[in-house]
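Bit of a strange request maybe. I'm writing a small parser for structure token strings and I need a real example to test against, not something I typed by hand. Could someone generate the tokens for this chain?
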Amino acid sequence: MGNDQAGRFPEIVEIVVEIPRHSRNKYEFDEAAGVFRLDRVLSSAVYYNFDYGFIEGTRAGDGDHTDALLIIDEPTFTGCHVWARPIGGLEMRDEMGFDFKVLCVAIGDPHQAHIHQLDQVRPHRLLEIENFFQTYKLLEKKETDVVGWQDRAFALDVLLADRVAWEREQARS
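Reply from user aminoacidic:
Good idea to test on real output. This should exercise your parser:
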């Protein structure tokens, strides 16, 4: 599958996993140092019910790469690169403002091969993801507001804008 997927952005994206499914540890990529660091352990009695990371070659409004949620049956590992297909996303607001998390399915997972848009995901799975983001920071006294799910077209627009921001940044450096 390799590099032939790289030219298919935004229909195919490269996700870098920071936090594997079932973890309570919140790892973040330190872009300046090029390493993954433990940011914190979730203080609420919840865990990530999906792999979480970011999309290579993007820059979101908060200054980080675009966030990605990866539906996959088995957890991967911190630092794993995964080719994935965006199917929608969860719009949120936090202390930094607009916060969009692109929901993807792994190209290499045949159990997700039939999923191309949000309405093909089990409705309860989407509710679980929403619930996670509504509760995971409660005990840290941090505000998050889950606005709601957006379709694939919205997610692709966000990705294209975040790619332009990334390319602009790269041209300046």
